[in-house]
Records
---
Amino acid sequence: MLQVNQQAPGFSVPDQHGNPVNLDDYEGKNTVVLYFYPKDDTPGCTIEANDFTTMADQFSALETVVIGVSKDSCESHVQFIKKFNLQLILLADTDGSLCERYGVWQEKERDGIKKMGIVRSTFIINKKGQLVDVSYGVSAEGHAQEILDKVKILS
């Protein structure tokens, strides 16, 4: 698992439109909030995405870009964005390589059944490409506000 003060693992992953998004694109310009969530259009993931969208202007005022990541396809992301009018960049990590690099692909247990899945997690990456906050296993409800509060302190 990643830790604060490490260099954030780089990536080039397609967004909802199939355009490659690279972490290097933001270095020196923006703080990046990279949040991993299990699945488009599920209750917790919808709460989290809607909360980040509601606070989009506040993040933008702090020169912060919010990027969501799941293993869903670009098409699934487009439908999710349209359905809830989300104001986010969503990355389609369909092969799971980005999830692996950030340590969020883990064994989870639900109702006594163990299986691999994305552990809801968020990383704040500063303008130098370093991890300044690492949060694994977060709750969807209220999480966007917690991250906004952290970004304010770190800015």
Note: Helices lie at 43-54, 56-61, 74-84, 97-101, 143-154.
---
Amino acid sequence: MKKIKPWIIAISNQKGGVGKTTTAVNLATALAAVNKKVLIIDMDPQGNATVSLGFDKNKATKTSYNVLTGDCTISQAIVWSKIPNLSVIASSKELAGADYELSQIEKPQYFLKSAFERELLNYDYVFIDCPPSVGMLTVNALVAANSVIVPVQCEYLALEGIADLMRTIDRVHKNFNNNLKIQGIVLTMYDTRTTFSDEVAQDVRANFGKIGIKVYSSVIPRNVRVAEAPSYGKPILLYDFKSKGSQAYIGLAKEFLKQEAENG
């Protein structure tokens, strides 16, 4: 089979608990379900994406840390999930010290990008689940990526929470990756019981819309079933396909594919 160059997407927000990993895992799963070949790289030391796909993060022999340090190639670290078309590179606790380690080496921003450049991967999409911080791990992801998807929770100070990330994306674009773009904003943790969630959603759409950044129409609700799914090692699409959270991610995947088709 002829190798293809995948589209690389960083899923990032410096704030924790915004649905970042949930979005990475479930968008990837929805795309895999329509025969797109998808890889998730778990760059978060917490390893939530790894666990959410049913892997024991303490038993991985080759991890994203090994890829960053050059101990193995991307393809050597890949393991297949139980979901057809979806594979993962697991997280490692060693990533917790990687910010310091990388910063001691010349041109530390380019390690992940260099790993991608060493081989052509037979994937349609690669999603990089970033840690909830703007450190060297996130910068490596942004330098390697073609685009960024930013989950934004429908809660107080949602816009302020991503201000630092936007500044980082801008600096990376200017200094290290001229092709980097923001693919879109995903509204998460929408609470239908309150008017406040709707007000935040409107603010996000107004603020980003006026500067030409796409805010996806599909909104991810605050949903107990979504929160439960990782503890069973399953994406919400497998844990409870009929749940509102699952259907929201299916809607997001449709929007994502339409956007891709329109962009050529």
Note: Residues 244-263 form the longest helix (20 residues).
---
Amino acid sequence: MWVFLFALWIVLNGRVTIELVIFGVVIASAVTLFANRVTGYSVSIERRVLRNFPVFLLYIFNLIWEIIVSAFKMCAMVYRADPPDPVIIEFHSGFHTQLQNVLLANSITLTPGTITLFQEGDHFVVHCLRREFGDGIEESSFVKLLRKIK
């Protein structure tokens, strides 16, 4: 984080002088110290994020793909005037971290045709506009990718 903040300082200033380098070191150090004390940021968290970055990147691309596919399914449903067959599904994700559960809940809600009604711990209650939208939600591509996060 310190390296990123220092590099950002230099880039935003547009030139490199001894004064700017000294101020950059001081300011980057102060912001990093502030983040350590107030927000609970630590180097171990940064290492964990960097280690899981490829999985997060793949997850974002997968989320965009699922949103597009679901949007086309919703458009086809509306175009054919198929009546909705709403269903409420309850399941347990099996995730132990809050990050994984929240990412899954938000991903379900972002996907057209489904919405997370309730999420507490690893217990989910999901409303699906069509029964087929909820089939296999416990083993969806979201769940498979989130299991790869260490």
Note: DSSP finds six helices and three strands in the chain.
